[in-house]
Write a sequence for this structure.
């Protein structure tokens, strides 16, 4: 995951909580990952099998330096049990390169087309207005987070 600069993250989370009322959040008592997304990020790839090693991560990140992602819009996508409110993110050269490098490792990612986005919250079906708002906001990416199947996370600064 391409992580938003730590000093920006709390501002994005606070904005999410202002724009999305807590009463419409989708909550699963057995899975705490729903509700508001508390770690603003852009997913590059998921479902690596087997887990990546530090060496693999070093090859993927390679010469990538801190960069900015451009938030282009606010929208949502529908799921069977819930809807996902998100920022649409421009697919920059850095994101494209990272995705390409990740594709070289075995994974269970079922989405062949890469559509970068930043999840704001999981909400109950049809409770958030069906809007599409145009934005032009640059947000710095300064580190990466890798989450393994064992639940352990590794943060890597760029």
């Amino acid at each position: 995951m391409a992580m938003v600069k730590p000093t920006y993250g709390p501002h994005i989370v606070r904005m999410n909580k202002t724009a999305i009322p807590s009463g419409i959040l989708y909550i699963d008592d057995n899975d705490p990952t729903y509700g508001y997304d508390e770690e603003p990020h852009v997913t590059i790839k998921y479902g690596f099998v087997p887990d990546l090693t530090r060496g693999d991560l070093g090859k993927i990140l390679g010469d990538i330096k801190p960069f900015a992602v451009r938030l282009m819009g606010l929208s949502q996508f529908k799921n069977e049990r819930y809807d996902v409110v998100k920022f649409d993110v421009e697919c920059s050269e850095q994101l494209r390169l990272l995705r390409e490098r990740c594709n070289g490792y075995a994974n269970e990612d079922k989405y062949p087309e890469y559509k970068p986005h930043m999840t704001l919250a999981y909400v109950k079906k049809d409770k958030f207005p069906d809007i599409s708002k145009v934005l032009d906001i640059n947000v710095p990416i300064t580190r990466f987070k890798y989450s393994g199947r064992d639940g352990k996370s590794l943060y890597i600064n760029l």
